[in-house]
What does this fold into?
Amino acid sequence: MTTFDPVHASGIVNTTTLYYGGGNSSGFNCAGMASVSAVQNCEIARRAKWLADDHDQYVRWGASNIASCPAPALNDLGPSGSYVDRFAITYYRIAYNCGGFGYYCNYITFCQQQSVSNFYIQAGPSTCPDHSSPTAASNPPTCTCDESYVPETSTSCRPEPLSIALYGLGVTVMPGATLSPPAYAKVTKGDGTPKSGEQVVLSYDVVPEENDGLPRSAHEATVSPVGGGYTDSFGRLNISFTAPCAGGTHLFATGCPDCANQETGRITVPGCPVPALTEPPFNDACATVLENTSSTQAQKDAACGALTDNLKTGMACFRDKLSNLSPAIPMVVTSDIRSVAYQAHLRQVWDRMERVVKWMVDNPTIQTACAARRAEIAAEKGCNNAGECISCYAESASQRSHCLVHRPANPSLSDAKHTEGKAFDVSRTRTLDPLQVMPDARTPPQAITQFLNAPTNCNLNWGGAFDDDVHFYVP
It folds into this structure.
């Protein structure tokens, strides 16, 4: 906290005396100066300026070898009669002769001493300094600093030092909410009373929450007034704040032209504790192709590699069995070989939906902050719930809906059938659901595993044993 200068309660300052001088009855003077030396310096400076102006004029006229003349010289003679001081100034001006013929002037310059200037200085009446007024009929008068001014020295007044403080900050505001009641800056005088009509300068910045995948503009709050304003009759400037949807730390700084301090404060807007999906976009060629709903099988094979021969044989066997049913059932494959990167993506989608749902259930105040994150994950998973997707989003030209019904296997070349080229998934609606109806209608009812194994053994295992019923694989 900045330390304030003590305020002079009385506001009393001394009068000041102005000095006036006149030279040789010429009418020019440096009148109303605060001291005799100020008058002397003023008159010397005036003559030095004349000499400099002479030099500049000859330069403009094209003269060369311009004479260099002595500077004005002061001779202080001290008090004289009723005058507080008498002094004289010896000084020179630059003169010239043409030294040429006809219309041409050669400007031969020389120093010409001027008549000595004599000055007689007298003191004027004592007056109150700026920003003060006489308060007693005396000679010299008693002077008091004007309102909002305090003594700076014994003979001068300066604006009263003010202080500014921030109230209502240091809080947490939920995404999208408006701070109520509003924060405010308050300006007070040295005696603690409010200062109305004082300009307050307000600056604002935000430090976005890291790694949330959102642009900076999504982290900026709506703050008013922009840049500041003026205090009301209570010395206050209200600051309205509406939080953005993205998390971040919002920083405020305030001051005022006559304040002896600045104040800072902050508001925290929590973001969603579940981070954004790291992909897409992907750095892996196979994952990029698989995520693109318009990729051809040839593109998938080129980017991801081929299935194992055993799986190809098993898929052909399964397809033949389905086509021989009445009515025939199409074998619609939704996924087969994947890269480790794409397997990791699918597992991350599942895991982060589990986390975000749990956070939103356990912490209702975080729901707004996580709504956009949940929607982002749901678009990839294919549904907006934790656990199995029962009703799935339709895929669009730009968005893959994975319709996950089971947690994807660990993303490893040796620990996930898809990454080994040993597994494929089929469409639930177009392949699995019709297939489950068909064996059930047989006498006696048949399971899908029996359908796969007899009369011809396709050497395929079914994922229904661990609740991943669209999944088929070879050992």
